[in-house]
Amino acid sequence: MFKAVRIDGVELRPVFDPVFRTFAVQLWDKDGPRSIIGLVERYEHPDDIMDELDHHLIEAGLRAMTQDEYANVAGGLIMAKGGPDAELLWEAIWSARRGQQLSIEDIQ
User: Fold this and answer.
1) b/e string for 58-93 if b means 16 or more Cβ within 10 A?
2) Distance of CA 95 to CAs 20, 26, 98, 99, Å?
3) Rounded distance, CA 16 to CA 87, Å?
């Protein structure tokens, strides 16, 4: 559902650790794992890591995320954890998609 985000040849992979109940974003390049944002820091909410992610990307020599990339990574973090927040996000996405598929004739 959420597209993989690639920035300057590096893939951002949202992760939730159920043991420590923390979020992270792994940076992978063609050779494998490059770094993990949230390995040392403790991000207990998706918003916490998203607030600092662009800063970490720029420090790593990458560009900042676009709005679409931001939405994909944030959504990926929520879905990685699962639970009620993921269910609400899933329902909102499907409701929006159903709304887009309606034509004016369907409403009248």
Assistant:
1) eeeebeebeeebeebbbbbbbbbbeeeebeebeeee
2) 32, 30, 5, 6
3) 16
Q: Which amino acid is at 34?
A: R
d(CA 36, CA 14): 10
Per-residue pLDDT of the chain (108 residues; tens, 9 = 90+): 677 899 999 999 999 999 999 999 999 999 999 999 999 999 999 999 999 999 999 999 999 999 999 999 999 999 999 998 888 888 887 887 776 654 444 433
**Tokens describing residue 108:** 């009248």
What is the dihedral sign for C-alpha 18, 26, 42, 91? negative
DSSP state, residue 2: P
Q: How would you class 34 by CB atoms within 10 Å of its CB: exposed for 0-12, middle for 13-18, buried for 19 or more? A: middle
